[in-house]
Amino acid sequence: MLRILLRRRKQMLTPADVTVTDRPAVRRAVSAAAMGNMMEWFDFGVYAYVAPVLGKVFFPSSSPGAQVVSTFATFAAAFVVRPLGGIVFGPLGDRIGRQRVLAATMIMMAISTFAVGFLPSYAAVGFVAPLLLLLCRLVQGFSTGGEYAGATTYIAEYAPDTRRGFLGSWLDFGTFVGYALGSALVTVLTAALGAGGMEDYGWRIPFLVAGPIGVIGLYVRLRLEETPAFRREAEQAQEERAVHRAGGGEDPVEEARQSGHGRLREIFTGHWQAVLICMGLVLLYNVTNYMVTSYLPTYMTATLGEDENTAQLLVLGTMVVVALTITTVGRTTDRWGRRPVFMAGSVALIALSVPAFLLIRAGGILAPAIGCLILGLLLVCFAGASAATLPALFPTRIRYGALSIAFNISVSLFGGTTPLFTSALVDGLDDEMIPAYYLMGAGVVGLAASLVLYETAGRPLRGSGPMVESPEQARRLVAESRTEASRRARDIWVRIRRRPH
After folding, report:
1. What is the phi/psi pair of residue 362, to 5°?
2. What residues contact 119, with CB distance under 8 A and at least 6 apart?
3. What's the CA gap between 330 and 386, in Å, rounded?
4. What 3-state DSSP class applies to 158?
């Protein structure tokens, strides 16, 4: 019992255990992370909206249906290398720091996206043209393998515990703003230049715009500092190494543990449950995301025969609704929890996917607009909660690496392949409701992951101390911790005194 009392005493917080966040630094962290995501999804929005045009430019000998499938196959190829990017950038971010890796991924994304705008067409160089497009997409995919996980980790490690959901949701706000900007630019260009102008040169313009955006994003990221959680973890690792050196040399076990292979082994042996939960939630979010953002415009034009401008405006309007509501959902997760939001969204996805696509197929303007709105509101449930939920699944020393690997494996297998698989199934089975069934399957997986998800709202990240917004909150938290520890110690002491001798 005495040992229990001593352990209770050790669990009390001290002022050194509580980190008071710096508001300007938090704002810079959120802005820089969101900028990178905006850049990434600007490219996705452009690619999704110009997919029919790219099919004609790079795959002119194919049928219209095969052109769409070929274009989305190139789109999906980027996701094949994303796990490789996650394996490289994730553990590297845990070893050398989040800020350096995020700057490197920004450079690679900007250059590869910018380069697409200079690619020759199939008519100019033959089969070399689609190969060059594929190469650019592979570089984009490799760099993106370290982007989202790093950005969510960066924001989560800067955010106060009680506002992590709200601040994290700004990352995905950048996602949908980037997508909306990319798709809006393509919509305006299509209306202004027409189909012929877009095929001749118009498709290049959106990719060329990505260059200046990347320069701005890189400038912002280079001015960032490391997160408090990473700095504290690095200081503790340095102290441990100093102790081992003072004792007569390096500890080989600890050296192996700190290496890249050691961290990978720890991820899959010590945290496999969290990896599976992360993959399930990522599947739920990204299948819905890529269905709406990347496949829906092509589905409405190539499959349903809708007017191209109408389809683009409907999806663009959906993205605007998502962007306007996402921070509200993030704030809601801080108050009510991440788990209830994921569970409710999963059940709604299972129940509403078929009605949504029936409305989209109905024709006209009003019914498809309502169907798109339903899908957008389902999507925002997952988008608003993910950035705060996923980093909290893993401890600080392996957070970037574990999240990169789990996230990118799930996205590569299920999320990024959604347009390819869905378009191929619709074309092969001649069933226009395939997208709805696909979403329902994602809802089932997401519900299973949500049921075993550990609630993290308002709690410190694993391996880190509490994060608060002011010194007053820190003092109150320390006082409450001492009061609670004293109460528990008193209860144990009373039980000892009452025990019969």
Report:
1. -70, -20
2. 129, 132, 133, 136
3. 9
4. helix
Among the listed residues 209, 205, 186, 199, the one whose alpha carbon sits nearest the alpha carbon of residue 54: 199
Q: Is 307 helix (H, G, I), strand (E, B) or coil?
A: coil
Rounded distance between C-alpha atoms, residue 203 and residue 47, angstroms: 9
Q: Which tokens hold the place of 272? A: 């496999």
Q: Are 280 and 35 in contact (CB under 8 A)?
A: no
CA–CA gap between residue 47 and residue 294 (Å, rounded): 8
CB contact at 8 A, 167 and 32: no
Q: Which residues, 6 or more positions from 470, have their beta carbon under 8 angstroms from its beta carbon?
A: 20
pLDDT value at 234 more than 90: no
End-to-end CA distance of the chain: 14
- Smallest CA-to-CA distance from 321 within 173, 169, 165 is with 173
Which tens digits make up the pLDDT trace of 339-351? 999 999 999 999 9
Token digits for 16? 């050194």
Report the alpha-carbon distance of residue 3 to residue 226 in Å, rounded: 38
377, pLDDT greater than 50: yes
The crossing angle, in degrees rounded to 10, of helices 23-49 and 147-158 is 160
Convert the pLDDT of each residue in 429-440 to its tens digit: 888 899 999 999
Residues 6+ apart with CB under 8 A from 115: 136, 207
Axis-axis angle for helices 272-290, 434-451 (nearest 10): 150
What token pair was written down for 280?
Answer: 């399930």
Q: What percent of the chain has pLDDT over 90?
A: 32
Question: From CA 198, how far away is CA 206, in angstroms rounded?
Answer: 11
In sequence order, the 6+-apart residues with CB closer than 8 A to the CB of 22 are none
DSSP states of 218-235 as a string? HHHHHT----HHHHHHHH
Kindly state the average pLDDT of the residues 395-423: 89
Tell me how far apart the 2 most distant CA atoms of the chain are, in Å.
Answer: 95
Q: Alpha helices, DSSP H only, in 51-163?
A: 51-58, 64-80, 82-96, 98-116, 122-125, 128-144, 147-158
The answer to whether 341 and 330 are in contact (CB under 8 A) is: no
CA pair distance 233, 101, nearest whole angstrom: 17
Q: Please report the pLDDT score of residue 214 as a whole number.
A: 79
* Gap between the Cα atoms of 271 and 278, Å rounded: 11
Average pLDDT value for residue range 276-289? 95
Q: What are phi and psi of 20, to 5 degrees?
A: -95, 120
The answer on pLDDT for 17 being more than 50 is: yes
Give the predicted TM-score (pTM) of the model: 0.84
Region 286-307: mean pLDDT is 87
At 24, the amino acid letter reads P
According to DSSP, the residues that pair with 467 across neighbouring strands are 19
What Å distances lie between residue 293 and 117, 288, 408, 439, CA to CA?
21, 9, 18, 13
